[in-house]
Write a structure and sequence with these properties.
The chain is an alpha+beta fold and 742 residues long. 30% of the residues lie in helices and 14% in strands. The chain is built from 22 helices and 23 strands. The relative contact order is 0.09.
Length: 742
């Protein structure tokens, strides 16, 4: 009989009721779980869980997976009950500017804090960036707009958790603090919400932010921490609170105000602390945590150059409400900025993989901090000597002016390669540049990287799945004949191709150090490799997957807002990309910031000394971080360069066309027509398998720019440089040495 009961129970469980797709995603996000974490727990693929949450085409789990998934959702529903549906607003609701405060609908007001609506702007903030709907307040101030308008209705962001954490941060992740014409201090939040600020000093402003402003952002991972609130101070706010509008040259070089500044003293008297970088463009003001409650506020000061114009454009000059919108979109889709885009990119890695987690209860029911599997941990690890940049403490015994060669130093960098054009190419009319979207992010996707310290091995057998650095001779790899498939070989003109093993495209002359993806590509091309020695990392994992997915989704969502979608035909994609920045310049700035977050975050993995009186052979501050990992940076760059070379080889073997120049992720070809479609081998709308494909997704390509062949020859002749890299100037044809942040 028990077997019959078990069979009945299994039958019931196989049809366990499940909530709608939107609710499944809400519950997962509310608990800070990623798709990968749920997939690993249920022993299914990530795409399977994504399908269970898809609104457009929801798939349903079956068998034991359905029972386990239903159990997970039921437990999460107990922790994060669905919010009550708000009542429909009255058909003729009064405006904030024309009605007493008590007549304003409760849904428009913030708890314990007076609220305003932002002045009318030409753009409307996306619904995904609006704060959650708050309880009623005791009072409201009229809109600063002279014309009466309807109040901003506060709605929960589509991708934000509700529950207790969501209510705590109901006014969004950040606010831009400004002073109006009447002298009132205002905090412009995301979604058009404006709060009155009663604080008269910086210490009081910090207290108000933590106690009343309800600013912040939920954690991105289960064991992680909620993001601290961010306040952006305008020039008017700086003057109100006794801070300089601009730093002096000395303060700018130091990156902070002097310790004797009156505001720094005010904070000290109020028992607030600053981090080691002091009161600078990105100041962090904090007190020791009390239990699980953090007491920390981040300041951003645009007039002190906190927002690098190379990545953020002119957003520092935007009105407060528009600045809040731009930073709010970035915060909701990437994370609340913690500093420069590079700093934020690195912080995002840690936020998605916190170094520690709470253990299971011990015999006394107490939990302890333990290592979080899949993270880099809380302690730094030494790199291998070949991975150490010049001046590293590991190299202090080298002669002072010693220059390390390929046999001593791992040198994985992006391409900077060009060649003279052939006679046949000079008869063509155009030079067309194509650029790989989010190339380094795509290179990080699915990449296995080391999580711990390296192990030195003599005469190892190469393993393409083992991350590390390998000393191996690849000079025998001949690009004139390479394998392009399992049993397919191609004959190519090696003189027209860059080597995949060096940034300058030169063929190796002997043994050199390479990251795993580079050596694996030599094997893929059909050649045997015999490493001499290696530093391998046996503790490894796909550490950057969640980081890639978060930034990919942010990029694609923002590009979709600008009218560029993932399902477009090649022709429609090229049309949509033409002038996409002009449709909403502010959102286009967010795209630039997302790209800079990718490149800058990877660059921070091998951050060099920044002044501080450093001398070669001495440690510098960045070495104390677990995220100082030059091996991970090298692996991503290696894989990105290899990915690009693979496409170039596929294209050459099929079309006989070879690149004229390559700079990082931009490739230039000579063509009879001005469009990428004039030389990319599309057939009935389908691209060459394994070759270049037009589209907005990371790893696909877009049109970078077109110039004439005559322009290219004239530029090279003018600078007397037959191999001048034309990819650097293909976008608009202007030859300059200005730093563009690449």
């Amino acid at each position: 009989m028990s077997e019959l009961f078990d069979a009945v129970d299994a039958l019931v469980a196989s049809r366990s009721p499940l909530p709608p797709a939107e609710e499944r995603k809400r519950l997962r996000v509310a608990h800070g779980l990623t798709l990968d974490e749920v997939a690993a727990a249920l022993k299914v693929r990530r795409a399977t869980v994504s399908g269970w949450e898809s609104v457009k085409k929801t798939t349903e789990p079956r068998g034991p997976e359905r029972e386990a998934y239903a159990r997970l959702l039921n437990k999460l529903a107990e922790l994060y009950p669905a919010p009550a549906t708000p009542p429909e607003p009255a058909p003729a609701a009064p405006t904030v500017g024309s009605a007493p405060a008590e007549q304003v609908p409760a849904a428009t007001l913030a708890l314990d804090t007076p609220v305003r609506t932002a002045p009318e702007t030409t753009e409307t903030a996306p619904a995904a960036d609006a704060p959650t709907e708050p309880p009623p307040t005791r009072s409201a101030r009229p809109s600063p707009s002279s014309a009466p308008r309807r109040p901003v209705r506060k709605a929960a962001p589509a991708d934000a958790p509700t529950g207790a954490t969501g209510r705590r941060f109901e006014n969004g992740p950040l606010a831009v603090v400004d002073v109006d014409a009447d002298g009132q201090v205002l905090a412009y939040c995301t979604g058009g919400l404006v709060l009155d600020v009663p604080a008269k000093s910086i210490p009081a402003l910090v207290e108000w932010t933590l106690r009343e402003a309800k600013l912040g952002q939920p954690k991105l991972s289960g064991p992680g921490k909620d993001a601290d609130p961010l306040l952006v101070l305008t020039e008017a706010a700086l003057e109100r609170y006794g801070l300089p509008v601009a730093l002096t040259d000395e303060e700018r070089r130091a990156g902070r105000l002097p310790e004797g500044h009156k505001v720094v003293k005010q904070l000290a008297r109020a028992q607030w602390r600053l981090t080691k970088r002091g009161f600078g463009p990105w100041a962090r003001i904090h007190r020791p945590a009390q239990g699980s409650e953090r007491a920390c506020v981040q300041l951003c000061i645009p007039s002190w150059h906190a927002l690098d114009s190379r990545h953020w454009g002119d957003v520092a000059q935007l009105p407060p409400a528009e600045l809040a919108r731009v930073l709010g979109v970035y915060a909701s889709r990437v994370m609340t900025p913690r500093g420069s885009t590079a700093v934020t990119g690195l912080e995002l890695m840690t936020a998605l993989h916190p170094p520690t987690r709470a253990s299971e209860p011990d015999a006394d029911g107490r939990r302890h901090s333990e290592h979080n599997p899949g993270s880099l941990g809380k302690d730094p690890v030494d790199c291998a000597p070949c991975e150490a940049p010049d001046g590293h403490p590991l190299l202090k015994d080298l002669p002072r002016f010693h220059i390390r060669g390929p046999q001593e130093k791992l040198f994985e960098e992006a391409y900077d390669w060009a060649r003279p054009m052939t006679d046949a190419e000079c008869t063509l009319r155009h030079l067309v540049g194509i650029d790989v979207n989010m190339a380094f992010a795509a290179g990080a996707n699915g990449l296995i990287v080391g999580l711990g310290a390296p192990t030195h091995v003599r005469k190892p057998v190469f393993d393409p799945k083992l991350p590390g650095s390998w000393l191996v001779d690849l000079s025998h790899v001949d690009l004139s004949r390479v394998r392009t498939g399992k049993d397919t070989w191609a004959d190519l003109d090696a003189d027209l191709l860059p080597s995949p093993f060096t940034p300058k495209g030169d063929r190796p002359q002997g043994p050199a150090w390479y990251a795993t993806p580079t050596v694996a590509y030599a094997v893929e091309l059909g050649y045997e490799v015999r490493p001499i020695e290696a530093y391998v990392r046996r503790e490894n994992g796909r550490y950057l997957d969640g980081w890639y997915q978060r930034l990919r989704d942010a990029y694609l969502a923002t590009m979709a807002d600008l009218g560029v979608h993932t399902d477009m035909t090649p022709e429609d994609f090229l049309t949509a990309m033409d002038g996409y920045r002009d449709r909403d310049p502010e959102l286009a700035t967010v795209v630039s910031a997302i790209k800079a977050t990718v490149k800058g975050g990877l660059g921070k993995l091998r951050e060099r000394p920044r002044g501080e009186g450093w001398r070669p052979g001495e440690p510098w501050r960045a070495l104390s971080r677990p995220t100082w990992r030059p091996d991970i940076r090298a692996a991503v760059i290696s894989r990105t360069r290899v990915n690009l070379h693979r496409k170039i080889v596929k294209h050459a073997s099929f079309t006989g066309q070879y690149p004229v120049a390559i700079l990082s992720d931009c490739v230039v070809y000579a063509s009879n027509g001005p469009s990428p479609l004039d030389f990319l081998p599309y057939r009935e709308g389908r691209p060459l398998p394994g070759g270049f494909k037009l589209g907005v997704n990371p790893g696909l390509v877009k049109h970078e720019g077109t110039q004439s062949v005559l322009w290219g020859e004239e530029v090279r002749e003018r600078f007397d440089a037959p191999e001048l890299n034309l990819a650097r100037y293909i976008k608009d044809g202007t030859v300059t040495d200005a730093d563009n942040g690449e």
